[in-house]
């Protein structure tokens, strides 16, 4: 059976690292490349974080490409404390001084277009950061979306609840124009794991303890980078997720990745048009789910609503039992 070909577009924070390791642990997945974008931290940090994850899992042959350092419109805003200033909890001291030599010279957007063109209708694109690289790809090659097998996005929201602003989810809020372009112009089969979807299918904190206390290099790495991160502490201050959904462990990007790896993880979804709001001081960046087709769009996406948490848990556990040779 042929392997699933995958490109991962990421702003590599802690949950991105978890999702990347999930893909690396999947025996029937071949990661063609990892493209980096600003978001959880500056794109230079994102590149270093991806290299670190690949090193931990002993998969350094996978090419890494540097991409967009900011949104299509306006300045980059990456000063966030969710995963620390470096995206991986601000605890890693052994930074690689020669990391730039290990990044491919080809720009991430060019690499994305090339890899998909070389493998038309075979590549799944996993977008787990702001969608800037994807928006630029369709501007450079308008036929790019039609060459994809499918697209998976972790981002957006479906109930108007926001985690970074009142009404918008982080990845979409970081670059609303790019999110708008992608959801208007990518007509390929598209699956969206929204913020509320992840939160409504959360796992208990006891599972998180089991996850990071496994005896393997990847698990020890995850335990290290989450050790001082308030987003991975059940004793931390109450955040918006706790207010809306109660205390829980959520590895956001893993929800999109799990469905890409094993479609049976997704048990329910809504097929309908969506649009990203670009105006207003409150709703900018919010994803509108149009279940009554008032927008009269001719393209629908699959908005995930329920998953098999047992299967998700097993994929998470397996992801931290690395390195593993394929």
Automatic annotation (TrEMBL):
Matches recorded under InterPro entries: Inosine/uridine_hydrolase_dom, IUN_hydrolase, Ribo_hydro-like
Protein name: Inosine/uridine-preferring nucleoside hydrolase domain-containing protein
Signal sequence, renumbered to the chain: none
GO molecular function: hydrolase activity, hydrolyzing N-glycosyl compounds
Family affiliation: Belongs to the IUNH family.
Boundaries of every Inosine/uridine-preferring nucleoside hydrolase domain copy: 6-312
Gene3D superfamilies, per the entry: Ribonucleoside hydrolase-like
